[in-house]
Amino acid sequence: MIGKLKGVIDAIGEDHLVLDVHGVGYLVHCSSRTLQRLPGTGEAAVLAIETHVREDMIRLYGFRSEAEREWFRLLQSVQGVGAKVALGILAVLEPGEVAQAVASGDKAAIARGPGVGPKLAARIISELKDKAPAATPIDPSLARVAEAGSEEGAAPSAVADAVSALVNLGYPQMQASAAVAAAMKSAGEDATTQVLIRLGLRELAR
């Protein structure tokens, strides 16, 4: 199985590219977002690869990061989501945004993917909310404030306390973090723990 390819981009199509690796051209299917962010033809590129093997074909899918590939795999574990739909979701949402949408129950964000209706979006969130990859980044604003509160000698931050409170109520860590991040965006970084918990619970109830 092929896990990574490093070579020179020979050609770029609407939904794929040809990567020349030591004279062998590999046709790799990618999301439109990935294709837009890669360098042009004649330039070097490295892609994480997911290999699908069938009786009549071998198809390669390429990603700019391991997190993107992990979400490609995870999305396809949901009934009704194939490679095309998974790539479509990753074309409109970064891996961290997918994690945020799943954790916060944002069906509208998931439904932005081509071929994803409200019912499928709800199923994706329901089945994946506790399975998000551990390496998926949490909202940067949440991480920044939480880190500030954990510095030596600093008082525990309202964000960290709010996340801890939601986890103690039984919510998964990622889901609690996403809810508090959304709460902080609406209430501001000076919001108290109580405000973040209240708004976080409101996010989780959506």
Automatic annotation (TrEMBL):
Domain I, as annotated region: 1-64
Main localization, broad class: cytoplasm
Residue ranges constituting the Helix-hairpin-helix DNA-binding motif class domain according to the UniProt record: 33-52, 73-92, 108-127
Keyword rRNA-binding included in the entry's annotation: no
Keyword set, alphabetical order: ATP-binding, Cytoplasm, DNA damage, DNA recombination, DNA repair, DNA-binding, Helicase, Hydrolase, Nucleotide-binding
Species assigned in the record: Saliniramus fredricksonii
Domain notes: Has three domains with a flexible linker between the domains II and III and assumes an 'L' shape. Domain III is highly mobile and contacts RuvB.
Protein name as annotated: Holliday junction branch migration complex subunit RuvA
Cell compartment(s), UniProt: Cytoplasm
Region described as Domain III: spans on this chain: 154-206
InterPro entries assigned: DNA_helicase_Holl-junc_RuvA_I, Hlx-hairpin-Hlx_DNA-bd_motif, NA-bd_OB-fold, RuvA, RuvA_2-like, RuvA_C, RuvA_C_sf
Single GO MF annotation: four-way junction DNA binding
Keyword Signal: no
Domain of life: Bacteria
Quaternary structure note: Homotetramer. Forms an RuvA(8)-RuvB(12)-Holliday junction (HJ) complex. HJ DNA is sandwiched between 2 RuvA tetramers; dsDNA enters through RuvA and exits via RuvB. An RuvB hexamer assembles on each DNA strand where it exits the tetramer. Each RuvB hexamer is contacted by two RuvA subunits (via domain III) on 2 adjacent RuvB subunits; this complex drives branch migration. In the full resolvosome a probable DNA-RuvA(4)-RuvB(12)-RuvC(2) complex forms which resolves the HJ.
UniProt lineage: Bacteria, Pseudomonadati, Pseudomonadota, Alphaproteobacteria, Hyphomicrobiales
GO cellular component terms, A-Z: cytoplasm; Holliday junction helicase complex; Holliday junction resolvase complex
GO annotation terms (biological process): DNA recombination; DNA repair
Described function: The RuvA-RuvB-RuvC complex processes Holliday junction (HJ) DNA during genetic recombination and DNA repair, while the RuvA-RuvB complex plays an important role in the rescue of blocked DNA replication forks via replication fork reversal (RFR). RuvA specifically binds to HJ cruciform DNA, conferring on it an open structure. The RuvB hexamer acts as an ATP-dependent pump, pulling dsDNA into and through the RuvAB complex. HJ branch migration allows RuvC to scan DNA until it finds its consensus sequence, where it cleaves and resolves the cruciform DNA.
Protein family: Belongs to the RuvA family.
